[in-house]
Specification:
There is one protein chain. With 458 residues, the chain is α/β, with parallel strands linked by helices. It has a seven-stranded mixed sheet with strand order 3-4-5-6-2-1-7, covered by helices on one side. Strands 9-10-8-11-12-13 form a six-stranded mixed sheet, with helices on both faces. The chain is built from 15 helices and 13 strands. The protein is 45% helix and 18% strand. It has three domains: 9-113, Gyrase A, domain 2, CATH 3.30.1360; 137-219 and 393-451, Up-down Bundle (Four Helix Bundle (Hemerythrin (Met), subunit A)); 223-379, P-loop containing nucleotide triphosphate hydrolases (Rossmann fold, 3-Layer(aba) Sandwich), CATH 3.40.50. The two termini are 23 Å apart. Helix 7 (193-220) runs antiparallel to helix 13 (394-415). Bound molecules: guanosine-5'-diphosphate. Guanosine-5'-diphosphate binds at residues 230, 232-238, 251-253, 257-258, 280, 337-338, 340-341, 361-363.
Length: 458
């Protein structure tokens, strides 16, 4: 079981930098008392006399020396983010003032919170489950609308409710099976294989849909490792610059200019791409260029998407043929660029080799809608439903995969006429993994590793 001291913790919850307001959050039994030691309200009221969800205006003071004006809000346990007494001090957002205010708090009874410790306390106090806690991080790191909406749905319990439904189906069946086997003298109705199979089938469908959601969710949330490849001078850097909206890559008409890999995260439609502009792929004797080319070839095998750029105004050559060969097992889109010029390239040949083919002009933006559609389809972002229950990280994914296996096995065993005892064990195994997913039965190490990824102050 996870335990924690109910000691008083504090941290700056707003980003470090100059801004209108900074918030220092304090949580724990002594939070109101700590704040009372350093805050003098304008009307002379003490924070300890306040009801929850109320605020006072006044001054932060170090002994009797004023530091800054502040609005202090009090939240009373259990009706707060952490489930404990919480105080939030909003002071002016200067770096000096904010740091000094935190120091004051730490000098007067609080200790500095660890990364994610406020949310960890919310979890340990049963305010949220582990999927909801992880969604807090996803909301903060969301790069696009769909990712933010989906994370908010998860925060509000969309994934937890789906897992609860699977768990309930399984627990009901396991309980029925155990009662029937353990108490034969009682009048417990016989377990019907048909009903059992039907419910296991329902549980399996739900968990399989969740597992599938991870892939499309990845394109929307974490981002897909995407390479822009093609021969020198086909317009890779121009495309990169168009997609990022900034001049990152050097555009020249000298072949082989881009030698280093330049990375940038962009949102295209609903898909997040971690985009790399690469050295032009061609057979070369230049040793520096050769290293770049080899590096790109290695990365093609591990990337999530390759945008393979061709120059419409030049005929295909050996370099193009070998590139089409290189990407045959990689999710890829053939991007035929420079369609504003006369088209001499053999588009039928490219279409016969590539999974998708789009026509663009990177210099004037023609065809970008078509490219967006293709990216969304190939990455799975097109099928992403922001209102559905979605698995959003590797931890959740592994738990779901581990839960799916025994359910599938139980269905197979049941159909093959294997004893109900063995099926019960498999169902119980699946339930354990689902409890781990929601955090109801997750070890201390797992919980700590989840919260250690958070920032301090969250
Ligand atoms: P890279 O070597 O593949 O990165 O190619 P660059 O992006 O540096 O472009 C090479 C040349 O092609 C530059 O002179 C660009 O201005 C030009 N170029 C890129 N895209 C287009 C396009 O869509 N139409 C035309 N006409 N020229 C383009």
């Amino acid at each position: 079981m996870n335990t924690y001291n109910n000691d008083t913790i504090a941290a700056i919850s707003t980003p470090m930098g100059v801004g209108g307001i900074s918030v220092i959050r304090i949580s724990g039994e002594g939070s109101v008392e700590t704040a009372d030691r350093i805050f003098r309200s304008a009307g002379g009221k003490k924070l300890s006399g306040l009801k929850g969800y109320t605020a006072l205006f006044g001054k932060l003071t170090d002994d009797d020396t004023p530091l800054d004006e502040a609005v202090v809000t009090v939240f009373k346990a259990p009706h707060s983010y952490t489930g404990e007494d919480v105080v939030e001090i909003s002071c002016h957002g200067g770096m000096y003032v904010t740091n000094q205010a935190l120091r004051l708090v730490l000098k007067n009874g609080a200790r500095l919170a660890n990364a994610g410790e406020f949310t960890e306390r919310a979890f340990l106090n049963g305010k949220i489950d582990l999927t909801e806690a992880e969604a807090v991080m996803d909301i903060i790191s969301a790069k696009g609308k769909a990712a933010a909406r989906s994370a908010l749905n998860t925060k509000e319990g969309r994934l937890r409710r789906e897992i609860d439904e699977v768990k309930d189906l399984l627990i009901n069946e396991a309980a029925h099976l155990s009662a029937w086997a353990d108490y034969p003298e009682e009048d417990i109705p016989e377990v019907s294989n048909e009903v059992l199979l039907e419910n296991l089938g329902k549980a399996h469908d739900k968990i399989s849909a969740l597992i599938k959601s991870y892939n499309s969710g990845r394109a929307v949330k974490q981002g897909i490792d995407t390479l822009i490849i093609g021969k020198p001078n086909v317009g890779k850097s121009t495309l990169m610059n168009f997609l990022t909206g900034v001049q990152k890559s050097i555009v020249t008409d000298i072949p082989g200019t881009t030698r280093d890999i330049i990375e940038e995260t962009v949102v295209i439609g609903n898909a997040v791409l971690i985009l790399s502009d690469t050295a032009g792929l061609r057979d070369t004797d230049n040793p520096v260029e050769k290293i770049g080319v080899e590096l790109v070839k290695k990365r093609i095998n591990s990337c999530g998407l390759a945008l393979v750029v061709f120059d419409a105004s030049r005929p295909l050559d050996e370099d193009d043929f070998s590139m089409l060969e290189l990407i045959k097992d990689t999710p890829s889109i053939a991007v035929i660029n420079k369609t504003d010029l006369d088209c001499v390239i053999d588009t039928e040949f490219i279409k016969s080799k590539a999974k998708r083919c789009v026509f663009i002009s990177a210099s004037n933006g023609d065809g970008m809608e078509e490219l967006t559609k293709a990216v969304e389809e190939i990455t799975g972002a097109a099928g992403f439903d922001e209102n559905a229950a979605v698995i959003s990280n590797e931890r959740q994914y592994q738990c779901a995969v581990n839960a799916e296996k025994p359910i599938a096995q139980a269905i197979e065993d049941l159909s093959a006429g294997i004893t109900l005892d063995a099926v019960t064990v498999l169902i119980e195994e699946a339930v354990q993994y689902l409890l781990e997913l929601t955090g109801e039965r997750a070890g201390e190490t797992i919980v700590h590793s989840v919260f250690s990824k958070f920032c301090v102050g969250k």
